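Hi, here's the filled form for the chain we discussed.

Project: internal
Contact: R.S.
Residues: 246
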Amino acid sequence: MQITQILERVQQLANINQNLKIEHIPHLDQGQETIYNLQNKDYSFLEILLKTADIRLILLHYLNDQWHKTIPLSDPNYILRSYSARNNQVAAPMHIDSFIPYQGELAISMQVAIILEDQNAENGCTMIIPGSHQSGEYVTQDQAASALPVESAAGDVIVWDSRVWHGTLKNNSGISRWSLIATFVRWWVKQGYRITANLPQSIYQQLTDNEKAILGFCSQPLDDEMAGIDFKQGYDQLKANVTDYC
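And the returned structure, exactly as it came back:
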């Protein structure tokens, strides 16, 4: 039921977005139907993302900083970098979302996809190259031929290291294939948007302390030394209102 309700909300927002003109669309998003900044649109988008136990456990394992002392280590200290809904129409080129390729066991960034509609090769599912996150190299388009399709059903969750080489096939079905796409990063990585300055107060007040931390409210850069020295902050430094952070 929750997936159906989320899909209906996404479709409502998509209808509203038809009248919006967004400038400077990134290359990877061109030709795709995308709704940005879901964390600002409705608390239900955060609820399904942050309260799904399996997502939390996977990200705790791969992204939590074990040396972070101001937030209990049983809680997530990673943060949300970006959150959008996407209905792919054209084929997305092979790429990585970690900005740089590198080798090593520690992940800096992870992708989470919550599938709202069945996805397969006909309607443009995601393609990945397993093990590519340890290549230490950028992907090139001639490697797409070796990518494997990731077929999924509504309600599935797909999580991968942002270094993994991936793209999508073209949607040849004539119907939508919406999914929610979130990028989570370690607490010290810059967020894609100024979430802490723009989150609606009505949504902020519904968040737990830890959910506020995941949205970046415990890891903001400080104005100067009079505001503090260490931007690795704890729950005791959370404020009552979003405007208190500005």
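Let me know if anything looks off before we file it.
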